[in-house]
C-alpha cells in the first residue's frame, strides 16, 4: 500500500504538469539558490508588455476596462494565466490547471458583452483563483490527500456558482497543506509552496498557494479559507491583502474540508488581493448575490453601505485604534496619528485561555478525521513541515490532538469558549471609558504573527490570528514593509512561546528573513466586514501617505 | 440524600407561596374537578373593573396608554400581577414572584415620565414575564433543579438588561420541566403547570408556565425559549401567539440552560403574547437595542422595515403558502384563498432523517449533562411526565439518549444535519417552478403538533416543531379555533408515530380534548423574523375576516 499511494500521487503531479501549455514552460528558470524571485514574472519574457500592464493593474482598473470592453476577458484571463503558470514554476503554488475551460468561459463573457452591451455581473471577466477546497464541477478537489485524487467534483461550490454568475472566471486552484490544519503549505501530492520574496521561507498556510500566487500577481483576486489564520498568515508572509470574514458571511457550502461537522470554530472563506478594492469588490458581489438562498449557513445580512460609511464609527473621522503591542507597529502608530486618529494600547484579555479552547475544540476529533481520510490510501499523516535538509529541526505537530474526547467534554470546552467571548465583548465595550471618542475602540491593530515568514517548517505559532477566529472578529491583513537587514537587528528577548520559538530566535539573523514582508491586521467586530474594509482603507492610506513623505 | 432534596424543594415551594401578598390569595378557587378555568380571572373578584380592562387590552393599547401616562406603570403592573397570581393559583404557572421589586421599578418609570415627559424606551412601563432560565439579578434561576435552589443570579441576563432599558418591567418568572427537554411542564421543585382551557390537559412545554400565564392574560408579553418547540408548543396548547426566532436573533447570554456548550441546534429565546403586535414590539425593541454589543452570539442584523414590508415577497400581495398537510388546516386554506393568496401542498423532505440528526446531537451529551446537575442534590432525573393517577400509562423518555458518543461521532451527525439543511434549502428554492408567483413559496403553514393539547404525560411528539429548529427557520404560532365536540369526531387513521400516539388515538374522544385550542405555525426562512411577523399578520387577519363572515 505504501508504494501505491506514492504512485498515485506521482501520477497526479504528472497530470498537473501535463496540463500546462508547453509554450508556457520556461527554460530560463532561476536556479534554486536565487531566493527572491518576486521580480521574475516581469523579466521572464513570457508575458507581453500589454500582459504585464494588465497583470500590474489594480482591481478597479481591471474591472473598469473589462466592463468597457477595452480589455477582453480572454485577454485578461490569458495574461493572468500565463503569469500564474510562471508563479507555479518558481513557487509551486497551484493544484488544478484548466486553461481551455477558463478561456472558453472568458470568450462567452466577451461574446455576451459584445452582443448585449451589458456586463454579466459586477466581476465581469475577472479571473479569480480558488483554494483547492472550493469545488469546480468536473475538477478534482483532492486537497492534497492521495485518497481524494480522481474524484472530480459533481457540482460547483455555492461560491463558485455565485462568482460565475457575477461574471468572474475561476481559472486555477491553489495549494494547501495536508489536513489544512498547518500554517504552512506542503502535502504528499503537490509538494511545497515557497515564499516569492525568499524561497527559503514559508509562504504560510493553509492558503499558501493563494498567498504566493496573488503576491506574484498571478491572480487579481484569490479565495482562501481561514480557520485559525489560513487566509491571513499567507497574506502577511507574502505581502498581500487578505480578509478573514466572520462565520457565514461568505458561503462555504459545497466545498470539501477537513474536520467537517465541527460547528464551533468553523473555517470561513475570504478574499486575497493586492489591493483593498479587490477585497471589497469580492465581498460586495458575493453578498449582493444573497448567498443565504443557496447556503443555509450563510447569514441573511445584506451588504450595508451605511456600515461601509462607518456610521457607527463617527463616519470615519477621528477613529480610535487599539494597538496590540509588538515590535514593528511604531510605523503604523505614527501614520495613524499623523492622519488625525487616536491610538491607545490594546490590553489582551485571557488570550492563552482562548487559544486553549480552540485547540480543545479542534483537537477533540481531529485525529480521527485525519486517520479516516488517510487510511483510504495508506498515505502517512504529515507530522512536520520541516524539510529533510533543514538546519533547524522540529518535533512535529503544531497543535496538540486529544483522543477519546466525549461529546459532553467537547460541550464543556465550547461553553468555556462562549463565556470567554462574552467577557471579551464586555472588555471591548468597556474601552469607551478610555478612548475619549464616546465610542469603544473602533478597531484593533494587531500583528499577524510573532515574526515575518520563517524558514520552512518553523511556523509554529498562529496565536495572533487564531485569537480572532475564536472571537469571530473580522480581520484584514495589510502589508506595511519588508524586513530590512540594516534596521531589523535582533532585539533582546527573554520570553518565548515554546522551544521552537526559542530555537528560531536563537538562529535569527536578518539574513535569514531577508526581504520578508511585514504586515498588520485591522481587527473589527463580528459581522462588521463592511466597516473593517473601510477602516483598513483608512489605515492603508495613512501608511501610504506616511511612506510618500519619508 | 433522598430526604434532603425533598426538604429543600419543599422549602423553596413554601418560600414561593410566602412571596404572594396575602390579600391576593383566593378562598373561592374552583375545585379541581372544574377543568376549564380560562374565565376564572374575570370572575374571581380580585381584579377591579379597570384592572380587568387593562389586562384585557391588546398590546398596542397598553403601550399607547402607558406612553401617554393615561395608565401608570404601577397601575398596569399591579393589574397584571394580580391576574398572574390568580393564574398561579389555578394553573401553577409561576416560579419566582417579586412584587415589591417590580412595583418599585414601575414607580421609577412613572416618575421618569412625569418628570421628563418622555418614555424610557419603546416598552415603557409594560410588565413582561420571563421563563425561569432568564436571569434577574438577585433572584434564583433554579430551573426546577433542586441543585440550583438558593443560588441567586449575580447579574441580569443580557435580555433582562435590554428589556429594562427599553422600559419593560420584568415581574414574574415562569415554570418549566426539569432539564427543559420535555414538551410538558413538570419538575420536583414547582410541580406541574396545567392547561387553562382544560386542566386535565398539559400546558405544553418547556415554556409551559408562560403559555398558561399569557393565555390567562396574566402577562401581556412573556419570554420563552425554544430548542425543539418549547415556545410554540405551549403557545399552541394554550391558544396564544408565540414566535421561535432564529439562532442568535434574540440575545441568550446570561441565561441558565441545560446542555450548555451544545452549539449545533441551540435553544433560542422568543416572545409569547395574545396578539402579534406584542411579538413585533418585543422583537423590534430587542433588536433595536443592538444586542450584538452585549452578546457575542447575537447576530449583527438590524431590524429591517424593508423586510417587514415584505419587499422580497411581492410586497405581501398574492403570496403563495405551502401547506404541510394535516387534519384541520382546511379553515386556514379557505381563509387565505378568500384573502387573495395562493395555497399549494408543501412536500416534506426527509423529515424523519432531520429528526434523527437532532436527537443525535442532543442525545450525544444529554445524559451526562442531566446527571452532573442532579447528582449535586441527589434528586432523581424525571423519566415520565405521566401523573401517578393517570389512566394512560407511558414508558418514559421521549427522546433517546445515547451514551459514550465521541466528539468525532458528534461531528458526523452535525455534518449530516448540515447537508440535510442544504438539501432542504434547495427544495424550498425549487418551488419557484410551481407557485406561479415568480417566487418560491413565501411561507409554510404547518401544524404545531399532531394533536391538540393531550392529557398530562402524553405529549410525546414534537416533530412538527423541532423540524424547524433543525432547519433554523423562523416560525410563529397563531391560534385558529378550539376543539369542538360536535365537529371534531374521531377520524379513521391507520398510521401512528409510536405506541403512545396509538394509545392516545385509541383513547380519544372529543370529551378528552374538550376546549383545547387548535393552532398553526407560519414558517419562514432563516433570519427572516420581520417577514414572518408580517406574513403571520396576513394569515391572522385572513382568519379573523373568515370567522367574522361565518
From TrEMBL, chains A, B:
<dbReference type="Pfam" id="PF01425">
    <property type="entry name" value="Amidase"/>
</dbReference>
<feature type="domain" description="Amidase">
    <location>
        <begin position="76"/>
        <end position="532"/>
    </location>
</feature>
<feature type="active site" description="Charge relay system">
    <location>
        <position position="206"/>
    </location>
</feature>
<feature type="binding site">
    <location>
        <begin position="227"/>
        <end position="230"/>
    </location>
    <ligand>
        <name>substrate</name>
    </ligand>
</feature>
<dbReference type="InterPro" id="IPR020556">
    <property type="entry name" value="Amidase_CS"/>
</dbReference>
<comment type="similarity">
    <text>Belongs to the amidase family.</text>
</comment>
<protein>
    <recommendedName>
        <fullName>amidase</fullName>
        <ecNumber>3.5.1.4</ecNumber>
    </recommendedName>
</protein>
<dbReference type="InterPro" id="IPR023631">
    <property type="entry name" value="Amidase_dom"/>
</dbReference>
<feature type="active site" description="Charge relay system">
    <location>
        <position position="131"/>
    </location>
</feature>
<dbReference type="GO" id="GO:0004040">
    <property type="term" value="F:amidase activity"/>
</dbReference>
<feature type="binding site">
    <location>
        <position position="180"/>
    </location>
    <ligand>
        <name>substrate</name>
    </ligand>
</feature>
<dbReference type="InterPro" id="IPR036928">
    <property type="entry name" value="AS_sf"/>
</dbReference>
<feature type="binding site">
    <location>
        <position position="206"/>
    </location>
    <ligand>
        <name>substrate</name>
    </ligand>
</feature>
<feature type="active site" description="Acyl-ester intermediate">
    <location>
        <position position="230"/>
    </location>
</feature>
<keyword id="KW-0378">Hydrolase</keyword>
